[in-house]
Amino acid sequence: MKHTISILVENHAGVLARVAGLFARRGFNIDSLAVGVTDDPKISRITIVADGNEYTLEQIEKQLNKLIDVIKVRHFEQSELLSRELVLIKVACQPAQRPELISIAEIAQAKISDITVNTMTLELSDSEPRLKTFEELLRPYGIKEVVRTGTIAMQKGGVSMKL
Amino acid sequence: MASERMTVAAAMVKALQAEGIKVAFGYPGAAICPFYDELLKSDIRHILVRHEANGGHAANGYARITGKPAVCIATSGPGATNLITAIATAYMDSIPMVIITGQVNSEQIGRDVFQEADITGAAEPFVKHSYLVKNPNDVAVVFKNAFYIAGTGRPGPVLIDMPFDIQKMEIDFEYPDSVEIRSYKPSVEGNKLQVKRAVAAIEKSKKPLICAGGGIFTAGAQGSLSKFATIADIPVVNTMMGMSSMPADSPLFYGMIGMHGVSAANYAINHCDLLILLGARVGDRAVTAVNRLDGTTVIHIDVDPAEIGKNLAATIPVVGDVKNILNQLIALCENYDHYDWRKELDEVKATQDKPIVPAAPGFVNPKEFIRHLSAKLPAKTVVVADVGQNQIWTCNNIALKSGRFMTSGGMGTMGYSVPAAVGAKLADEENEVIAICGDGSFQMQFMELATMMQHGVGVKVIVMTNNRLGMVREVQTNAYGNRLTAVFLDGSPDFIKLAEAYSIPAQRVDDISKADKAIDDMLAAKGCYLLEVRVEEDQKTIL
Predict the structure, then answer these.
(1) Distance CA B299, CA B389 (A)
(2) Closest Cα partner for A64 from A96, A33, A104, A23?
(3) What does each C-alpha distance from B323 to B158, B194, B327 come to in angstroms?
(4) Residues of chain B with C-beta less than 8 angstroms from the C-beta of A25
(5) I need a labelling partner for B429 at 20 to 30 A (CA). Which of B22, B108, B256, B335 fits?
(6) How far is Cα B209 from Cα B234, in angstroms, rounded to an integer?
């Protein structure tokens, strides 16, 4: 089962290595990982999507909490989350195909970020399953390159994850 | 306290003094020389070990006796990497240590310069925390935090990596009085509701059992353990790390559990209806078949919440300092009586000791020897067992009524006993400290005989020699069709002559009739002593 874990950490050098190393040596698989600084420049937020059962999840949370630089760990149910991932897709596109791709972009609410004589680069921020659908729609044109940021997530509603 | 102008190296020494450090174990090198130059001017006693790992094990032994973080020092590169096994050994057994390593100039880090090693990276899986000091002004807070983190909660090793150029910089130094780490707040008291649930389970139980682990020593809870077991009339077993936490002559004590434990202790674990785990992490060698405990109510008391439910599901988890929680329990528990349950265990205990098989001429049965030794040990003796058959023979045949037993329980690090005994002796110079090892492990550490002689550390060393790596030999005999390979120690020196080369008095015991006299001679010696005990090559680990 997939779990989304948000971790507030001290914004020090080496913290990401400690968190990632912990996942590796305890045998927890990471599906996606995203890091960025929060509104407080001394604190970074790591969002990890990991795979595992209840036991694994409990161990992940407990072991993360033991790292001195980890300030707070929260695990969210998928239903209470607002989660987004950004993807850039460079796709082969002859001039005659442009209208088709523009229409796919419009339907998916993607942006056209770059264009050349025979390629088009599209940008979409959305939930992980919708990104997959988007990628599948573009595949017949010939995908040249895909970059994804990893999922970031936040709890829905008025509650926020603070110290 | 006003700040003072000084070099970082001088500040490091001031920090150690502020932490009450009297002894430090180490091995110098160029990258740590500024610190050593300042250490020379201080009253801190430096013990020069003969290998960095042994400095780590000596600090480990010292810390186990004092209960406070002990210090070891190494230089950059190979000095630091040599320490890794000692760091991992301390981590597995939750021993508080602060490790100081020299590092190359901060500007050169990452360029693979001479004797550069990324030690904070390499040691990351085995440290509670680590620091690479890049800003000289951080040194005071880093040292304060390092000692606090190492010694509180579940203790462990904390590494401080100090670049050469940083050590030489000048700063305004003021050692902080208090620590403020927002992300580190270990639990101390047990949750009252959980303690009440534990008491209710104890009240209901007909066959309760206490399993005491190394956490008893961490919390200094030996007295509370004894008191709780007595008023609640609950039998006690221990893990290898918990050995000597309960006086061996207590009628409530039933020995060590586990793969190499005794029958009564394992019977008790498998037949109790309530298991109270105290500072024990249910390691795979301690409880070999966790599923046998299905249906047993488990109260797991530990300072580290991550240990609860890791290897065994707990019915009632209680997080906090074991001593505090035991005292909470003592206040709430009545005088119960578990006579029938104790009788049941006494019956198993009465039949567990098989008669000693006399050794062939020229040899001594090591189990019999340990019993002779045990009978003669003065009160408060510290016994340090190495790893292998010598360790199990010792665990199952030594009966410490007071004093302390220690060994590398989690990591099973060969070569631990002699350096750890050096550390223990320096922490407790009044009492006897005895290292027990085999001829395999002794040859991983005998360079420390020089450390003992140089610094006048009167450790007694017992080497059980059978010219084999005995425990591996036994595995090969039992599981690999007796195809023995790489377990022969041919080429070993004459250990008596070796001791003489270090000017250490020594004698060989090759007949049990000579054991008592030899033990008396060893105990009567003022300084170091070495006793070789000749053991048959096919001697079994367990009776």
Answers:
(1) 32
(2) A23
(3) 24, 15, 6
(4) 125
(5) B256
(6) 6
Is residue B163 within 8 Å of residue B198, measured between CB atoms? Answer: no
Q: Where are the beta strands (DSSP E) in A78-132?
A: 81-92, 111-115, 119-126
Using one digit for the tens of pLDDT, what is the confidence trace for B329-384? 999 998 899 999 999 999 999 998 888 899 999 999 999 999 999 999 999 999 99
Task: Give the whole-angstrom CA distance, residue B272 versus residue B209.
Answer: 6
Vertex B213, ends B207 and B216: CA angle to 5°? 105
Distance CA A2, CA A65 (A): 20
Q: Which two tokens stand for residue B417?
A: 């006993």
Q: DSSP of B29-92, one letter per residue? A: -GGGHHHHHHHHTSSPEEEE-SSHHHHHHHHHHHHHHHSS-EEEEE-STHHHHHTHHHHHHHHH
Contact A17 B184 (CB under 8 A): no
CB contact B310 to A (< 8 Å) = yes
Q: Is the minimum CB–CB distance between B300 and chain A shorter than 8 Å? A: no
What chain B residue is nearest to A21 in terms of C-alpha separation? B125
User: What is the distance in angstroms between the Cα of B124 and the nearest Cα belonging to chain A?
Assistant: 7
Of A5, A21, A107, the C-alpha closest to A61 is: A5
* Alpha-carbon gap, residue B537 to B543, rounded angstroms: 15
- Round the CA-based radius of gyration of chain B to a whole number and report it: 24
Cβ density class B493-530: b for 16+ within 10 Å, e for less: eebbebbeebebbbbbbbebeebeebbeebbebeebbb
Which positions in chain A have a beta carbon within 8 angstroms of at least one beta carbon in chain B?
Answer: 10, 13-14, 17-18, 21, 25, 55, 58-59, 62-63, 65-66, 68-72, 163
- In this complex, which of A13, A21, A163 lies closest to B124 when CB atoms are compared? A21
Q: Are A68 and A54 within 8 A, CB to CB?
A: no
User: Distance (Å, rounded) from C-alpha B381 to C-alpha B523?
Assistant: 11
Partner-chain contact A21 B182, CB within 8 Å? no
Domains and CATH numbers, chain A: 2-81 (3.30.70.260), 85-152 (3.30.70.1150)
Domains of chain B: 4-173 (3.40.50.970), 192-352 (3.40.50.1220), 366-534 (3.40.50.970)
Contacts of B125 in chain A (CB under 8 A): 21, 25
pLDDT in tens, B252-273: 999 999 988 999 999 999 999 9
Residue from A66, A67, A71, A73 to probe the interface with B (highest B Cβ count within 10 Å): A66
Q: What is the pLDDT of residues B127-166, one digit of tens each?
A: 999 999 999 999 999 999 999 999 999 999 999 999 999 9
Q: 3-class SS at A81?
A: strand
Let me know: does B23 contact B61? Beta carbons within 8 Å.
Answer: no
Contact B183/A71, CB-based, under 8 Å?
Answer: yes
- Quickly state the pLDDT bin for B437 (edges 50, 70, 90): very high
- Containing B330, the helix (H) or strand (E) segment is helix B322-332
Instruction: Tell me if chain A has a CB within 8 Å of the CB of B12.
Output: no
Contact A66 B304 (CB under 8 A): yes
The pLDDT assigned to B543 comes to 66
The residue written with tokens 């919390």 in the block is B219
The residues near B39 (Cβ < 8 Å, ≥ 6 apart) are: B13, B24, B46
Phi-psi map region of A150: left, alpha, beta (phi>0 left; psi -120 to 50 alpha): left
